[in-house]
Amino acid sequence: xxxxxxxxxxxxxAGGSLRLSCVASGVALSDRCVGWFRQAPGRExxxxxxxxxxxxxxxxxxxxxxxxxxxENTLFLRMDSLKPEDSAMYYCAAYxxxxxxxxxxxxxxxxxxxxxxxxVTVSA
Length: 124
Fold this sequence. Notes:
- This protein has strands spanning 3-7, 10-13, 18-25, 33-39, 46-52, 64-69, 74-79, 88-94, 113-114, 118-123.
- By secondary structure, it is mainly β.
- Strands 2, 4, 5, 8, 9 and 10 form a six-stranded mixed sheet that branches. The protein has a four-stranded antiparallel sheet with strand order 1-3-7-6, with no helix packed on it.
- A hairpin with a 4-residue loop joins strand 6 and strand 7.
């Protein structure tokens, strides 16, 4: 049975940082497209970051960085300079099939395995 379990969510003030973790069981995150999505109330689920775990650390923008530890079968999301609009439920996700690179703009529908979500709330 595949299970992804997020942790590390919570409350932060604007400008602060949080680090989310996603531990997988029943599926190896190695050599697989994985990602983080978020969904705020009344809004569609949107991609935060995705990476193929067969290479090094994933891409990062100015505020969010995705990384992985294949030995620990864990995915991470580092979030810096948080803003109130970053408040949402954050989900980790993984492709069903290994050895498929992530497309340029992965869609939520492309991911087969999902965690239950971790709430992030950022106050002004």
